[in-house]
Amino acid sequence: FGSSTRSQPPAMASQAQISKKRKFVADGVFNAELNEFLSRTLGEDGYAGVEVRVTPIRTEIIIRATRTREVLGEKGRRIRELTSLVQKRFGFPENSVELFAERVENRAACAMAQCESLRFKLLGGLAVRRACYGVVRFIMENGAKGCEVIISGKLRAQRAKAQKFKDGYLISTGEPKKHYISEAVRHVLMRQGVIGIKVKIMMSHDPEGKMGPSLQLPDSIIVHEPKEELPMMQQQPAEEAYEEQA
């Protein structure tokens, strides 16, 4: 795992009587180290994040990825190896931790998956501009509201510079940013130096909450089609109507 400091897993931290402050720090360190390890190990398999659920019986670690078959391995061999590694590294008791693989439904809306895709394109020797435009086009064609790719480092010459590739509508502040923006950063170790990639994707609103956030944007206005107006009936003058009744 690379880290020399021992971080306690959430289950262990809750069992030992430690202060709330220390517990939150321990949980944060555990999540960060786990995420770092999985992103390095499963980068090629479209790793898209991890979720830790602590239950009284066991700790469940759910790995989100675009290619779950590769994560599981042949007859579930790879996931068992990962479970064993996590168990030994963090000192979990036997059979108290379990790893699951969950498939990402829309990989175009996942910034992590797209960042890894761009990383492997660049390592494969594809031109920077072509690789970035390819990722932007793929994201936008799959129903995203907007996206931005920032790439910085020694792109061609010895002088480092940054390039931005942007398309669609992208918000950058406020509460909706937490729900609508998916963001990821990766470092590509190229021969001439390190290149940094940042991918930001703004997802589209989905009332069901499957392909995007169910929360509506606060400034979105829906203009309804005007209703068809029926011709008004010609009203009789009041005097004539009174005479007819008489």
How much helical structure, as a percent, in the residues? Answer: 25-40%
Q: Number of helix segments? A: 8
Annotation, overall tally of beta strands: 7
Quaternary arrangement of the chains shown? single chain
User: In angstroms, what separates the terminal alpha carbons?
Assistant: 101 Å
Shape: extended
- SSE string: HHEEHHEHHEEHEEH
For the residues shown, what is the average pLDDT? Answer: 85
Beta-strand percent range: 15-25%
| Secondary-structure-derived class | alpha+beta
Strand order of the largest sheet: 5-4-7-6
Q: C-alpha Rg, in Å?
A: 27 Å
Q: Main sheet?
A: 4 strands, antiparallel
Uncertain parts:
none
Folded structure, characterized:
This protein is of the alpha+beta class and 246 residues long. Helix content is 36%, strand content 23%. The protein has 8 helices and 7 strands; from the N terminus they run H-H-E-E-H-H-E-H-H-E-E-H-E-E-H. It has helices at 10-15, 20-41, 68-72, 77-90, 111-123, 128-141, 175-180, 238-245, and strands spanning 47-54, 59-65, 97-103, 146-153, 161-168, 181-189, 194-202. A 4-stranded antiparallel sheet has the order 5-4-7-6. Strand 1 and strand 2 (59-65) form a beta hairpin. The longest helix has 22 residues, at 20-41. The radius of gyration is 27 Å and the shape is extended. The termini are far apart. The mean pLDDT is 85.
